[in-house]
Amino acid sequence: xxxxxxxxxxxxxxxxxxxxxxxxxxxxxxxxxxxxxxxxxxxxxxxxxxxxxxxxxxxxxxxxxxxxxxxxxxxxxxxxxxxxxxxxxxxxxxxxxxxxxxxxxxxxxxxxxxxxxxxxxxxxxxxxxxxxxxxxxxxxxxxxxxxxxxxxxxxxxxxxxxxxxxxxxxxxxxxxxxxxxxxxxxxxxxxxxxxxxxxxxxxxxxxxxxxxxxxxxxxxxxxxxxxxxxxxxxxxxxxxxxxxxxxxxxxxxxxxxxxxxxxxxxxxxxxxxxxxxxxxxxxxxxxxxxxxxxxxxxxxxxxxxxxxxxxxxxxxxxxxxxxxxxxxxxxxxxxxxx
Length: 338
Description:
The protein has helices at residues 29-45, 54-58, 62-71, 96-105, 121-135, 159-171, 195-203, 219-226, 242-245, 247-260, 277-286, 301-315, and strands at 2-4, 7-9, 12-16, 77-80, 110-112, 139-142, 175-179, 208-212, 232-235, 266-267. The protein has twelve helices and ten strands.
């Protein structure tokens, strides 16, 4: 929970990970390229006081995650969104067993989502069914730009992808988080294009498609799709740190999202360990649309509460204390920055 100026906020960090990018886990040069690209994002978009050493960035571990999110970071609940990247890392990038063990130890604080790759065919479908039962999956994270043998990406509307989405629907995995954001070296930019979201959102209306990174740098394309598809949501991971380095740009991002899809389909995400949640939460609660962007309506406290946690809590059936829910009878007031 985060309290500020007499208001308290229920916080759900909807996109976190435990990763291992240490040299002994790197399969090839691409493993180093990938984590180096992550570190460049972290170093260039973070306040100086929040920048980690490169060595700390390679691997965090569960103890530090619990401290950064829950002791220091105001987070009430967090959702693991792992990426496998088996072509780059011997044991995978996201640490499934460690993350799931933490979830089992702290079910009130953590939800574990898993991942799949439709290029694994029938064997992967069987594994998905086993994983859904073992992990009790409510959601999954898909990485359409991930390499797989000679393939350097797939589309959500590929035939095999449809079979996996059909299986997910049958298994009750209703929240599909898809990385559709900035290019990460050495992955290919075009493999992150948002166009394939349009078709699957239409054909799988029982599923929620959370477009992580809200499609950046294809924000306009994303908004035109999401405004027509009510089961498409926006994750703010990667977008949020611009609140520090380019607040006007962030104002444009959040202003466009609110204009096109509204406050009920936007989710806070720190993208831990790319960034830690504490400073992002503080900055967002204190943020207001810059005066020069007067075409956008001012942000309200209620909108911020929805984005910071209530939206993801509703999607994942996470209990919210009565005192942290919205007061329906209260008038909407603009959240004024101090």
